[in-house]
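Hi all, posting the design record for the shared folder.

TITLE: backbone redesign
STEP: 1 of 1
STRUCTURE INPUT:
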C-alpha cells in the first residue's frame, strides 16, 4: 500500500504544479490583483476558464493526495509534494519564459534534496495508529490555533508579503493533511461512527483559509514561490504534527530526529533564497525602485 500511496502522491505533485500554472496566470491577469484579492476579484475568477481549469487539475491532485494519506503515514506522503517544485520550474521555463539563474537552481536543489531525505527516512520509520475520541483532540486544538492566526492575518494584514502568505498557507495545509490522515484512518479502521467530526470541521476551515492565502500569494508573486512554500512548509509542518501529535515517529532513534531537523532547515533555506533571488521577484523589486525614484523626482520638480 505504501508504494501505491507514493505513486499517487507523485501524480498529485504534478497536478499541483499544473494547477498552479493555470491559476497564477488567471490571477496575475487581473488588473490590480497585486494589491491583494478582493471579493470582486474572486467573483471574476469564478467565470475565468483558465482559473477553473487550474482548480479542476488541483482538485484531481487533491483527491489523489487524500487517497495516499489514507494508505500511508503523513510522514511518508506529504513530503513527496516537493517534486512539484521541479515540475513547476520546468513549466515556468517553457510557458512563462522563466529565466534560470544560479540562485534559482540552488534553491530548487536545496528544497528538493532536503524534502527527499525526509521521504527516505520517514518511509522506514513512520507508523500509522488509530486515534479515537480524546486522543484526536490535541490535533483539533492545534488546528484551531493555526486557523485563528490565519484569520488574523487575513483581517489585519491585507498586503502581507508573499513569503508570509505562503508560510501561512503551508501551515494551514499541514493541518489539513494531518487531519485528513487521522480521519481517513478512523473511517477505514474503526468505522464512520468513530470519526471525530471536530477534526473534519478543522480540516475544512483550514482548507478554505489556506486556499484564500494561496490565491493571494499567486497575486503577490511567481507561482514557483507558492509551490516552494507549499512543498516545504506544508510537509515539514505535517511531519512535525505526524511525529509528535500522532506518534508516527515514536520508535525513531535520536539520530533520525537530528537529520530530519537538519534537512528541514536546508529546505527552508531554499525557500528563503528563492524568495529573494527568483527572477520574477527581482524584476518586481526593480520596477518598485524605478517607480519610487520617479515619484521622488516628480515631487522634487513640483516643489
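Okay, here is what came back for every position:
SEQUENCE:
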Amino acid at each position: 500500500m505504501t508504494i501505491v500511496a507514493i505513486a499517487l502522491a507523485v501524480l498529485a505533485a504534478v497536478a499541483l504544479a499544473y494547477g498552479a500554472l493555470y491559476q497564477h496566470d488567471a490571477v496575475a491577469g487581473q488588473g490590480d490583483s497585486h494589491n491583494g484579492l478582493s471579493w470582486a476579484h474572486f467573483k471574476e475568477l469564478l467565470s475565468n476558464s483558465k482559473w477553473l481549469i487550474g482548480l479542476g487539475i488541483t482538485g484531481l491532485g487533491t483527491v489523489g493526495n487524500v487517497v495516499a494519506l489514507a494508505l500511508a503515514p503523513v510522514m511518508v506522503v506529504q513530503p513527496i509534494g516537493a517534486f512539484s517544485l521541479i515540475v513547476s520550474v520546468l513549466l515556468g521555463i517553457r510557458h512563462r519564459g522563466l529565466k534560470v539563474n544560479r540562485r534559482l537552481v540552488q534553491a530548487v536543489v536545496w528544497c528538493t534534496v532536503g524534502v527527499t531525505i525526509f521521504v527516505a527516512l520517514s518511509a522506514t520509520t513512520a507508523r500509522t495508529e488509530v486515534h479515537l475520541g480524546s486522543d484526536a483532540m490535541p490535533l483539533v486544538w492545534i488546528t484551531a490555533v493555526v486557523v485563528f492566526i490565519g484569520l488574523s492575518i487575513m483581517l489585519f494584514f491585507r498586503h502581507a508579503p508573499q513569503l508570509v502568505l505562503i508560510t501561512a498557507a503551508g501551515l494551514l495545509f499541514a493541518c489539513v493533511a494531518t487531519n485528513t490522515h487521522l480521519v481517513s484512518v478512523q473511517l477505514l479502521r474503526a468505522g464512520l461512527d468513530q470519526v471525530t467530526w471536530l477534526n473534519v470541521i478543522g480540516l475544512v476551515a483550514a482548507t478554505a483559509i489556506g486556499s484564500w492565502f494561496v490565491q493571494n500569494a499567486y497575486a503577490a508573486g511567481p507561482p514557483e514561490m507558492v509551490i516552494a512554500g507549499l512543498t516545504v512548509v506544508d510537509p515539514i509542518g505535517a511531519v512535525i504534527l505526524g511525529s509528535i501529535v500522532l506518534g508516527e515517529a515514536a520508535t525513531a532513534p535520536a539520530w533520525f530526529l537530528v537529520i530530519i531537523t537538519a534537512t528541514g532547515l536546508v529546505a527552508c533555506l531554499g525557500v528563503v533564497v528563492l524568495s529573494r533571488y527568483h527572477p520574477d521577484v527581482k524584476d518586481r523589486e526593480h520596477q518598485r525602485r524605478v517607480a519610487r525614484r520617479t515619484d521622488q523626482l516628480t515631487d522634487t520638480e513640483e516643489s
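COMMENT: The chain has one domain: 2-302.
Let me know if anyone wants the other runs.
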